[in-house]
């Protein structure tokens, strides 16, 4: 079988490696430059590749094409592949064909990385043989090629779900929905939401689908969709006969066969949204029959993900928090909601069609000053200029952190939660977060 892999990053190289190990004829093509360490990996494994070019004739002669999630659906080469009717899969689809492991797949607009990492931690802590992959860590395909895990916990994006055919997780989770990546979905929120719901489309009645009962778009689509998996809800707003919920104001409860409960202030993760993430993760743990004590221990000792509400340091009584992974308004909503002290908010970058009215009330109540960080901050400044007296325009991380430090007083918090993509000034949200930490620690 001839397999062509498009994209020479982590997922592409992993897919090419797995194809090679399966005895397939494999060729990798990247329209851009491939990083040196990936080129070395491909060379070491005798995998043919090209960069800064797409050999269309060779690509279109494939039996199966594996596409990296970063390649837009509207790209010319993708249109030509679809016209020819060649099977086009994401790396998670491709890799799932070569493992019998139980897959726990997590999607949603926000909280994916945290919840995926937390579920992996719960399983690992309990001694299960588990791998972590998808949009996080080492590629799923490379692990399937080299490691014989019984479970995989995968963070899955809508872009990966766009290119599935048979992908069928044992447990799927849809954490929440908010307007994100709409430029890739014809600016249609429902089209984007339906892409997320594809996580459950191949599940059968011996599988599980964990969903957020408080999420309006999920509720609306669940009335139209036929879900075959056993559905288990979680809610932070109402008690439930089965699933996960908040009891009173201080306890999380999961009812599934038996009952699990613990105090919210014992959770290692801060903020209301992380109560929801902890409920979802606990349900997954209960489905896999992990005992209550083990789940409780994991929820108490888990360390937050880098760049997601990460406490960098406390200096002169001012807390500095790195939430660089907040690349949309909804993610920043959760960050602002969890702030307990007056906040100097660093925001800005590449706007993805943001509607700032969703956080207007929180900004009025919680934010004492806004520090814009980006090449073009005009949209943010225009929106908030009549709502906040102190708004500052900066174009480097050093300038933003110095400005924030000058504005903050003892007892305040400086929060980097940009609401926007990072590509105007930074290589990635990770690069932005690391630069923030460097400047703070300076």
Task: Write a brief caption for the model.
Helix content is 35%, strand content 23%. It has 17 helices and 20 strands. The termini are far apart.
Q: How large is the share of residues in beta strands?
A: 15-25%
The mean pLDDT is 94
How many domains is the backbone divided into?
A: 3
According to CATH, the fold-level topology of the largest domain is UDP-N-acetylmuramoyl-L-alanine:D-glutamate ligase
Low-confidence stretches: none
Given the structure, what is the number of helices? 17
The biggest beta sheet, please? 9 strands, mixed
Total strands = 20
Please tell me the CATH architecture of the largest domain by its name.
Answer: 3-Layer(aba) Sandwich
Helical/strand content category: alpha/beta
What would the principal axes of the Cα set say about the shape? Answer: globular
**CA radius of gyration:** 22 Å
Question: What does the secondary structure layout of this molecule look like, with pairings?
Answer:
Blueprint: E1 2-6, H1 10-21, E2 25-30, H2 36-44, E3 48-51, H3 56-59, E4 64-67, H4 76-84, E5 87-90, H5 91-96, E6 102-107, H6 112-125, E7 130-134, H7 140-146, E8 151-155, H8 158-161, E9 171-174, H9 189-197, E10 208-212, H10 216-222, E11 230-235, E12 243-247, E13 251-256, E14 258-263, H11 272-287, H12 292-301, E15 310-315, E16 318-322, H13 329-337, E17 343-347, H14 360-366, E18 367-373, H15 378-384, E19 391-394, H16 397-407, E20 413-416, H17 429-441
Parallel strand pairs: 1-2, 1-4, 2-3, 4-5, 6-8, 6-9, 7-8, 9-10, 10-11, 11-12, 16-20, 17-18, 17-20, 18-19
Antiparallel strand pairs: 12-13, 13-14, 15-16
Helix pairs in contact: 1-7, 6-11, 6-12, 16-17
């Amino acid at each position: 079988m001839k397999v062509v892999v498009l994209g020479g990053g982590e997922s592409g190289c992993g897919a090419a490696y797995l194809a090679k190990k399966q005895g397939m004829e494999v060729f990798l093509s990247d329209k851009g430059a491939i990083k040196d360490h990936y080129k070395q990996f491909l060379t070491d494994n005798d995998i043919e590749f090209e960069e800064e070019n797409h050999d269309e004739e060779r690509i279109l002669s494939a039996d199966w094409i594996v596409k990296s999630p970063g390649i837009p659906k509207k790209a010319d080469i993708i249109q030509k592949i679809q016209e020819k009717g060649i099977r086009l899969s994401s790396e998670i689809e491709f890799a799932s064909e070569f493992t019998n492991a139980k897959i726990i797949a997590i999607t949603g607009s926000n909280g994916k990385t945290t919840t995926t990492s937390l579920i992996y931690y719960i399983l690992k802590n309990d001694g299960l043989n588990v791998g972590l992959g998808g949009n996080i860590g080492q590629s799923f395909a490379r692990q399937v090629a080299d490691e014989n895990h019984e479970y995989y916990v995968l963070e899955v994006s809508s872009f990966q779900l766009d290119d599935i055919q048979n992908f069928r997780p044992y447990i799927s989770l849809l954490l929440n929905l908010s307007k994100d990546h709409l430029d890739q979905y014809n600016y249609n929120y429902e089209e984007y939401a339906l892409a997320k719901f594809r996580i459950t489309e191949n599940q059968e009645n011996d599988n599980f689908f964990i969903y957020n009962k408080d999420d309006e778009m999920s509720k609306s689509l669940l009335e139209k969709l036929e879900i075959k998996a056993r559905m288990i809800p979680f809610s932070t707003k109402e008690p439930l006969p089965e699933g996960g919920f908040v009891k009173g104001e201080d306890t999380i409860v999961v009812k599934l066969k038996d009952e699990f409960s613990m105090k919210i202030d014992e959770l290692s993760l801060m903020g209301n949204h992380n109560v929801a993430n902890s409920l979802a993760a606990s349900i997954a743990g209960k489905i896999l029959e992990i005992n209550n004590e083990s789940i409780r221990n994991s929820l108490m000792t888990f360390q937050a993900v880098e760049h997601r509400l990460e406490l960098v340091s406390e200096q002169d009584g001012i807390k500095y928090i790195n939430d660089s992974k907040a690349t949309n308004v909804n993610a920043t909503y959760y960050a602002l909601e969890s702030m307990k002290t007056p906040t100097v908010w660093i925001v800005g970058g590449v706007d993805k069609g943001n509607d700032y009215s969703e956080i207007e009330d929180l900004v009025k109540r919680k934010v004492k000053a806004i520090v814009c960080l980006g090449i073009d901050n005009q949209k943010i400044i225009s929106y908030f200029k009549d709502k906040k007296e102190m708004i500052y325009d900066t174009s480097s991380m050093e300038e933003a952190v110095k400005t924030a430090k000058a504005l903050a007083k003892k007892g305040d918090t400086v929060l980097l939660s940009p609401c926007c993509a990072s590509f105007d000034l930074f290589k990635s949200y990770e690069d932005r977060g690391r630069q923030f930490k460097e400047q703070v620690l300076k």
